Amino acid sequence: xxxxxxxxxxxxxxxxxxxxxxxxxxxxxxxxxxxxxxxxxxxxxxxxxxxxxxxxxxxxxxxxxxxxxxxxxxxxxxxxxxxxxxxxxxxxxxxxxxxxxxxxxxxxxxxxxxxxxxxxxxxxxxxxxxxxxxxxxxxxxxxxxxxxxxxxxxxxxxxxxxxxxxxxxxxxxxxxxxxxxxxxxxxxxxxxxxxxxxxxxxxxxxxxxxxxxxxxxxxxxxxxxxxxxxxxxxxxxxxxxxxxxxxxxxxxxxxxxxxxxxxxxxxxxxxxxxxxxxxxxxxxxxxxxxxxxxxxxxxxxxxxxxxxxxx
Length: 311
Description:
By secondary structure, the protein is mostly helical.
């Protein structure tokens, strides 16, 4: 019913005890409890742009973060060393994958509300995502999902930005080599690069000036002969060219950016003009204008820091 009529989810949240029952099931300590794995799909169904704020107020953010925390503990690394090929173990692994994917889906919905980003930071969500990225067992499958959550969590949330830096997150935002950016099975290099860029843009704006964390951030742009600064400029030039191409197509059709309400309209114009494929624009190019704005903002901050003798 909730799939057919989304408003039903709001009624369920307000007028029944179902949400509290779901939360209680997800709070069970046993990481492999079948009840947790069964009810998480129900929480995914309940969450929507209309209910994310209300569910956040009811405690959904804390519940989801706490459900993810056990996967960051060292016991998982010990399991990596065990070589059991029992059929039940394989089924459990599949169920755990579904459970984790569902939790990340819940985070994606919850973090669309600004108040939930603060709750996420206060619940230890930023540190949790960083730990998941650093776990060898989880990295290849969930690196991208954790990065997407961090991207959303840091947007317009200064406390999350500070926690990110305090938890050594800058090593994630700025990989050792920008030429070798990690990927995972659900996100390709361009997608990962886009989220890294957004995280950096959020940090440059969200961290207060003249603070230790700001100095740590700016220092990253100085490492390895300003490699990261060069990387940003290359991204800026690349996105500038793509934006120019899109604007040419819009001009050809007598349109302006503000006239285009749906990015799919831009993609269809580009496909019809033979300049790009549908997949290229909708999956990798939907946020080029936004990316260009963010890059310009970062470059301005770096330029101002340079003029003060910081870089």
